Amino acid sequence: MRKFLKELLSNSVTLMVIVIILMMIIPIPVSIIDFVILLYWALSMMILIITMSIHDPLEFSIFPTLLLVTTLFGMGINVSTTRNILANGGASGKLIAAFGNFVMQGNVVVGIIIYIIIVLMNFLVINKGAERVAEVSARFSLDAMPGKQMAIDSDLSTGTIDEKEAARRRANVSRESQFYGSMDGATKIVKGDAVMSLITTVINLVGGMIIGMVQGGGDLQTVAQTYTIATVGDGLVGQIPSLLVSTATGMIVTRAVAEGSLNEDISREFLAQPRAFILTGLILCALVVVPGVPIGVCLAVGLGVAFGGVMLKRQMEKQPAIGRAMNAAAQAPPGGKAAAGGAAQAAAPQQGGRQAEKPVSEADYFKDVNNVYKLLTVEPIELDFGYSLIPLADESVGGRLISRIVIFRRQYAQDMGFIVPSVRLRDSSTLGTNEYCIKIKGEEVARGEILTNYFLALESDDVEQEIDGIDTIEPAYGIPSKWIRPENREKAELYGYTVIDPLSVMVSHLSEVIKMHAYELITRQEVVRLVENLKSKAPELIQEVIGPVVTYSMLQHVLMNLLHEGVSIKDLETIIETMASAITDRGMNPRDIDGITEQVRIALKRTITRMFCEEGNMKVITLDADLERAMVDSLTKGENGYYLALSPDILQSVVRQTQTELKKFNGLDQQPVILVSQVMRVHFYHMIGQFYPNVRVLSFNEVANNIQIQSIGSLKLESQPT
After folding, report:
1. pLDDT in tens, 11-40
2. Closest of 557, 554, 566, 573 to residue 522, by C-alpha
3. What 8-state DSSP symbol labels residue 269?
4. How far apart are alpha carbons 686 and 630 in whole angstroms?
């Protein structure tokens, strides 16, 4: 028995749909029709309440299917009540009769007009509007998918999110497109239901009067009164839940930019405008000058609305402003307010290990020579920003800059095997209110400007229509962009733009700068830490190699070379073993750092291939045989080894051709790669890297054997004018 009940419950939805379909065929007794109608009402009310309570339409992703089920339910009830009205002389339950008498109030014409108004309002206003919104949302959601996917990939590459979160977001983008596509079709069902209710009403009225006069033998007035009450009551009973479901449909397809439930959004956005309340109240009070208006009502409503606006304004003024809070927090001792490595720190003068009981002036603070020495400290990475950007870093007001930097440090350590030093955050009065400055070892290397109340829309070749905004250049990658208002975000994504929030713009810029200068940040001390960390895994290797064969200085320079070209140093064991083998087995000069680095790169061929390859296919630019031969012939030996001594004409030609060929990588997910022979790799990189630092130069020996190489361009030796 228990097993039977369990199976029954698990298949309850299937049974419900079957019962609904059978309702159109099997007559429902008048005694239980009221119960079925109330059940239909309860289901419709729950659907409406759920749509008003959810934060995101995808939280109610079964809505399109549920819409079909409720429509079938309503149609089944409609068929049953029509059968009862026509077969039982207009009798189809107490609920229908009660609603018919209540609306008509003894006047047939008024009842019919009210019913027609409700039906047309549902059909022409709510249904038609919801249908159009669903149709446009479905098309725009599909068009916006590439832009949203690019935004997810951008967040993943900067370390803002991990692989799990990226997979979840991609699934949501796909589900969103499918949801709005289903809603586009589901609204047609609602529209058909409204049309069918009109047809059913005509059938009930005309058919009932014919049956009543022909078969019942009643007079026209009595028959009309009886069947009109039943028809209007039946129509209203069906239209109430239909109106609820239609409203829910319109609500769920129009909440594209909602951030919370309907109640939360109204409280946050509508009630946050006290000025509108006050002006509206004053305008309503001013209506008393119009002759004939009810003065008491106008004054009561107007003063009530204005009073509510005044109370809202006072309540908002009591809340501490972010700027005042940040000013108070900025009253730090000499050295300013700072955050390092994701942990907030505040510098306070200390006396005897205890905090000073009263403020210390700057002159008194620096009387202590130890405090002067603190000024000589050079931070590895600093991020200075203007006043308007302080809330992005202040966690007390919801700032997420520190947490985003922590996420990036973790992701970079996992990918590259190098832990980024602590990032010192400072608010600077020398910068513009919206500016920020990135410093490496105390010197500025990059600067940018963001608008905290806007979003950055990145342009692409697939933009269908230009959007209004403030023209700018994306600081990290130099992409032409526009600062747009938040309300235009969805529109920009539909047009093909990739939209990024201001914080992500700054974090992306910071992360790219750190990646570019990572080789400068790997100090001798950090190398010692990496070796000590490896010692727990390979103690014999460290004991045998580090010191006698490979010095910390050699290892540091090799790691710097690898990071400079964007190669991961995570496999430190292989790097140290290869260096030792190159020196002891191959007899390489320990001072030949470039040669040793080339041997390490070959040993890391799988790592290099993975980093610069896309799905087993690597698109590259190659060198023409004549050009490579000319480069080999131009190799000249100097005090520090060989160097490339190309003529200025050939150098200019190579740089010009490279600029043209690199355009072929636009739109590809892969980083630009130039493939050369092993003997020329390091020399060609030193030559071309000063012009195009983001281009990766690989040798054939550094590409895994299972990778397919596809040449999409070639650099040639152009004939020189005589």
Report:
1. 666 777 777 777 777 777 777 777 888 888
2. 557
3. I
4. 17
